Amino acid sequence: MKNLPKGDKKLLNAWAFYDWANSVYTLTIASAVFPIFYEALFTDRGHYIDVFGMRLKNSALISFTTAAAFLVVSFISPLLSGIADYVGNKKAFMKFFCYLGALSCVGLYWFDLGNIYVGLAFYFLGLIGYWGSLVFYNSYLPDIAFEDQQDRISAKGYSLGYIGSVILLLINLGMIMFPKTFNITAMEAMRYSFIMVGIWWILFSQYTYYYLPKGSKENGQKLTKDVVFNGFKELKKVWGLLKDNVPLRRYLGGFFVSSMAVQTVMLVATYFGAQEIQWSSKEEGTIGLIICILIIQLVAVIGAVATSRASAKFGNIPTLIFINGIWAVFCALAYFITLPMHFYVMATIAGFVMGGVQALSRSTYSKLLPETEDTASFFSFYDVAEKIGIVIGMCIYGIIDQRTGSPRKAIVVLAIFFVTSIFLLRRVHKKEAL
Questions:
Q1: Looking at the chain, which terminus has fewer C-beta neighbours within 10 angstroms, N or C?
Q2: Nearest 5°: CA angle at 428, between 424 and 433?
């Protein structure tokens, strides 16, 4: 363990390297391999399973499980934020959630319909471990970097995460495409990819832990009831301040509805592609879906740059309105797509608008904040709103998918949310259009 001064290059690089370690979770587990693996389990038995005393469609089941995990995360995030602010050894908390998430990924190796409850538990805990570790990871930024360093090192972390996650996904794709080379089946290759994610996450995070300090305070304060619930008090304070800030309140309404739909589309896209696209074979479907995820990753970078330039020329709010318009059309068109080529085109569009909307939404929120030094509380409110939006979006998607048996209808309903977001964003005063 090294005690390096704030702003030290080694310390900053070690912090950013955690993105390299943990981003494999979001790409392999949340987006690419696990959704394909999960869908493949149902190949010979239809899309339904008897679970929790009900007969549920598989995609609805995973939607509800994801919603439940984000509901827990939205509740514990303020608790963890309060603890992170006051307890000296927050590195221990970060390690706990990191190892919880990583070991849960390893546990997915045993995911099977015969022990569905255990498998769902590992998936559930993996989500909580990933998001829980991020609370403490993000809270380190002001501790280890000066203000003029934070944007640069945060961007470096994002870049490292992108590179690392794509490298591992390409390795996994090679195993899945050529399983005989490794004397395994394609399904076994996917199971091994879950183990590789867990090992990668734990192994590369050690570099981060070696240099990160224990916490922001040399001697942590005693953990009291007030400390634990401090995060909720901060959220309540921000909620009260929103009553007097009409532009920010209106913007948050538009962001909440838009984020609800965007995050839901990205979380269910692979399940949709696996069920609704007419792939010529199971192998083509597996490879095609992973390629689509890679396309999204690549195009997202271009989209982020293009969105940044558009906002500089036309303003943040007009650009966000335009992007939400594209999303609305995207969801409406999704109802009609059936062929692989259709899906590739839609993946390209999704990647382009996804790459810019999240970054622009956060920066717009930052610009609308009142003059205050307590920006952490406002961003905590922002993050919780985003997670609650995911809970609502996934539940709506799951219910429609379960009741109608068609994810197409669920996707089309999401278009309504984008139209609603456009209406709400238009109500932000023109002088606040930034």
A1: N
A2: 125
Rounded Cα gap, residues 169 and 270, in angstroms: 15
Q: CA of 219: how far to CAs of 214, 225, 243, in Å?
A: 10, 18, 38
Q: What is the mean pLDDT of residues 148-161?
A: 78
How far does Cα 72 stand from its chain's mean position?
15
Q: Which residues pair with 321 in a beta bridge?
A: none
Q: What HEC string does 246-265 produce?
A: HHHHHHHHHHHHHHHHHHHH
C-alpha span between 321 and 361 (Å, rounded): 11
Residue with tokens 């395994």: 184
Q: Give pLDDT tens digits for 107-144.
A: 999 999 999 999 999 999 999 999 989 888 877 877 78
| Domain range summary for the chain, segments of one domain joined by + | 7-219, 229-434
How far from 158 is each of 18, 93, 94, 95, 99, CA to CA, in Å? 10, 22, 18, 20, 21
What are φ and ψ of residue 274, in 5° steps? -70, -35
pTM of the entire predicted model: 0.87
CA-to-CA distance for 18 and 29, rounded, in angstroms? Answer: 17
HEC readout, 328-343: HHHHHHHCCCCCHHHH
Cα–Cα distances (Å) from 259 to 21, 50, 242, 384, in that order, read 26, 32, 19, 12
- The predicted-structure confidence for 255-309, as pLDDT tens digits, reads as follows 889 988 988 998 898 999 988 999 988 888 888 888 888 888 788 878 877 887 8
CATH number of 7-219: 1.20.1250.20
What's the rounded Cα separation, in Å, for the pair 199 and 187? Answer: 19
Query: What are the tokens at 50?
Result: 């008897």
Q: What is the mean pLDDT of residues 5-18?
A: 87
pLDDT digits (tens, 9 = 90+) for 325-370: 999 999 999 999 999 999 999 989 988 888 677 778 877 887 787 7
20-24, 226-230, 277-281, 318-322 — which is least confidently predicted? 226-230
**Contact criterion met (CB below 8 Å) for 402 and 57:** yes
Same CATH fold assignment for domains 7-219 and 229-434? yes
Alpha-carbon span 363 to 359, nearest angstrom: 6
**C-alpha closest to that of 205 among 41, 338, 16:** 16
Residue 400 structure tokens: 């429609």
Phi and psi dihedrals of 353, rounded to 5? -80, -25
